Amino acid sequence: MRELFGTDGVRGVANQDLTVHLCLRIARAAATVLRHSGDGRPQVVIGRDTRMSGDMIEAAMIAGFCSAGADVIPVGVIPTAGIAYLARVLDHVDVGAVISASHNPYEFNGIKFFSHQGFKLPDEVEMAIEQAVASSEHLDHPIGDGLGRRRDTGDALERYLDFLRTLAPGGVHGLRVVIDCANGAVSGIAPRLFRELGAEVTTLSCDPDGLNINAGCGATHPEVVARAVVETGADVGLSFDGDADRLMLADERGNVIDGDCILAIAAQAMAAAGRLPGNTVVSTVMSNLGLERYLQRRGLTLVRTKVGDRYVLEEMQRLGAVLGGEQSGHVIFLDHATTGDGLVTALMALRILREAGEPLSALCSAVEMFPQQLINITVSSVKGWDEHEAIRRAIAEAESDLGEDGRVLVRASGTEPKIRVMVEAACAERVAYWAPRLADTIKARLAS
Q1: Tens of pLDDT along 349-359?
Q2: Are 359 and 379 found together in one domain?
């Protein structure tokens, strides 16, 4: 059983769960694993988002890497996907490290790693790092010229931006765009990028102060950008989360367009262009039945995985698919990026919008989503939640009532101490009945 790494790296409250001591040990452990599995001195590129604790954790990790004999290239504030890109294009880099808690509040932070191929580390490598952390007396302690050093490469961020520019060779001239940067990692680059590509840009939440990341803004609050699109008469809204690995859209009427709908319109456009291998899209058990039926009507197939973009990616690689993602806005265009990249998703969406010559609302009008409700219940511990007979009985009753035109999904979060309840059905009244009923049952037994 893994105790340290969850579905998306290591997460916790900075300086409480994710202490300086732990961060240093994780970096030392990662460097030791790299030294023992490769040749020569490991090279690490490291970046972070804008939260206040990023400086502290970055300093601890640089010290940890260097103390175990790895050289470190710090690139500062950058989207998570930027590190994944740099890990595979910078010379001699073995791994990328990202300091971010993604969409979580500022007091949280996290650490995740990418291989030199730009993919998240396999489970077995994360397990090796975790075991090395637990047995820290076995970590490497080089001396003299065996120590690592800090290296600088001043053009790292520009290399990532140059790559993004290639995805919109014709620009996005004439489009009026509202961008919500969530006071996060794209605050310094997204407005610049889209203006350079010819868009008329209105910005929201692009002034990070270390404390305001994701605070009432960004992809977890897409209604903010949706409202601004209507107020400014824009064509589309782009709402990123703190590390910009996810994106939510808003159409010109102020409707929120989530990851399921983005997958639908992207699949339609890519299939029409002959760029959707196997006519297959990969998503998770959370994706709406409406997406599945939309794809079926067009001769396309939806393959589902358990929740987590790493599992989506693994299935994409197994099937040879190039499009996959999650309802939450993680979308992977595998022919362009190795992980979910909100900026890539935005560029692909604007490209589809321009080529279609129709407003976004028209492109999404054929995607009829089922009513769905998601409730998150904070608990003292997620362990053993599914062993409570009353909870299991309530889930079975809901599934029996909804039948083939509905679904129930209850699961423990992989990143937070929460149980997530999702109810979906053709009948909105049944959703409104069962979602809170299940949530109340769980609260009565598990709530902290």
Answers
A1: 999 999 999 99
A2: no
Has residue 1 been placed in a domain? no
Show which residues are catalytic: 102
User: Could you tell me if 105 and 254 lie in one domain?
Assistant: no
**3 in a domain, yes or no?**
no
List the domain range (segments joined by +) for residue 281.
Answer: 167-364
Among 133, 158, 183, give the residue marking a domain's end.
158
Q: 393 and 339 in one domain? A: no
Q: Which of 30-44, 267-281, 398-412 has the highest mean pLDDT?
A: 267-281
Domain boundary among 325, 340, 364: 364
Sheet holding 176-180, edge to edge: 200-204, 176-180, 236-240, 247-250, 256-257
The residues near 305 (Cβ < 8 Å, ≥ 6 apart) are: 282, 283, 284, 285, 311, 312, 314, 315
User: For every residue of the chain, which 3-state class applies, written as one string?
Assistant: CCCCCECCEEEEEECCCECHHHHHHHHHHHHHHHHHHCCCCCEEEEEECCCCCHHHHHHHHHHHHHHCCCEEEEEEECCHHHHHHHHHHCCCCCEEEEECCCCCCCCEEEEEEEECCCCECCHHHHHHHHHHHHCHHHCCCCCHHHCCCECCCCCHHHHHHHHHHHCCCCCCCCCEEEEECCCCCCCCCHHHHHHHCCCEEEEECCCCCCCCCCCCCHHHCHHHHHHHHHHHCCCEEEEECCCCCCEEEECCCCCEECHHHHHHHHHHHHHHCCCCHHHEEEEECCCCHHHHHHHHHCCCEEEEECCCHHHHHHHHHHHCCCEEECCCCCEEECCCCCCCCHHHHHHHHHHHHHHHCCCHHHHHCCCCCCCEEEEEEEECCCCCHHHCHHHHHHHHHHHHHHHHHEEEEEEECCCCCEEEEEEEECCHHHHHHHHHHHHHHHHHHHEC
- C-alpha to C-alpha distance for 118 and 62, rounded to whole angstroms: 20
The CATH number of the domain holding residue 301 is: 3.40.120.10
Q: Do 103 and 207 sit in the same domain of this protein?
A: no
Q: How many domains does the chain have?
A: 3
Q: Calculate what percentage of the chain has a pLDDT beyond 70.
A: 98
Q: Note whether 93 and 212 are same-domain residues.
A: no
211 has pLDDT over 80 = yes
Say what the pTM is.
Answer: 0.90
